[in-house]
Specification:
Length: 269
């Protein structure tokens, strides 16, 4: 049996146990997956206790992804470039850190939504940890360029420079966004959490695919995108399920069929 968990604080809202129970039933893998509330200052102790009790892997959510990066004794390329870990696999004394967020986003866009990212102009709003986690997998799809816009322009510029070896990137302040359509806009800011919409030109959304990393509700960004003639408006539920599927495969070697699970969870919400 695979003893697995998700660590976070808060954690009660997490859909991960539900998703992984569906994966287990679908693939026939014997899994026990629990939610674990880790004290803010005791992630390492909580993780070690879980491993000592037979834990073979765990997911990590807010606010412990940096702690998990430091906890891992070995890291994948995705984790190393993201500077954060959301999945750990335990192999003996080795804890392998992975970041499945970007893979989850790309799989949702390409497999579930049928979007070819090659030769596309992608605008990402925000330059925090969420953006850092998705940049490498996006750039590996060979878009024309990925533009990063942020309130503090220097943060966007630095992040773009950090990833310039993987593809064409540029960074600038939100006020520099042109009123000219792009192919894809990804909202990776915390504005949706706060129920706010950034001040950006409406014309950039015309005909664009607009994707909010948030899920579970219609966000101000999604409403703005619809009003301004986006060709497609999507929330982050598919990314949530796809990043979980990548973690499940990382642990068990089994690849779940995600489409039906996304549909089931969406129907429940």
């Amino acid at each position: 049996m695979y003893k697995l968990a998700v660590f976070g604080n808060p954690i009660e809202h997490s859909l991960s146990p539900t998703i992984h129970a569906m994966f287990a039933q679908q693939t026939g893998v014997n899994v026990k997956y629990t939610k674990e509330l880790a004290p803010i200052d005791a992630f390492t102790q909580t993780a070690n206790n879980f491993i000592q009790q037979g834990g073979l892997g765990f997911n990590i959510t807010v606010p412990f992804k940096i702690d998990a990066f430091n906890f891992a004794t070995q890291r994948t390329r995705n984790a190393q470039t993201a500077g954060a870990v959301n999945t750990i696999k335990v192999e003996g004394n080795t804890c392998i850190g992975e970041n499945t967020d970007g893979v989850g986003l790309v799989n949702d866009l390409t497999k579930n939504l049928g979007i070819d990212l090659r030769d596309k102009v992608i605008l990402i709003l925000g330059s925090g940890g969420a953006t850092r986690g998705i940049l490498l997998p996006l750039l590996e799809q060979n878009p024309t360029r990925v533009m990063i816009a942020n309130r503090t322009a220097s943060k966007a510029t630095t992040l773009a420079n950090d990833f310039s070896e993987y593809g064409k990137t540029c960074g600038f302040g939100l006020e520099k966004i042109k009123s000219k359509p792009v192919d894809i806009i990804i909202n990776a800011t915390s504005a949706s959490l706060d129920g706010k919409m950034l001040t950006i030109p409406n014309g950039v959304a015309n005909g664009a695919i607009c994707y909010d990393l948030m899920y579970g509700k219609i966000t101000p960004f999604m409403t703005w995108a619809k009003v301004n003639n986006a060709s497609m408006v999507i929330d982050g539920l598919g990314m949530l399920v796809e990043q979980a599927a990548a973690a499940f495969e990382f642990w068990t070697g089994k690849q779940p069929n995600t489409r039906s699970i996304i549909d089931t969870i969406r129907a429940r919400s």
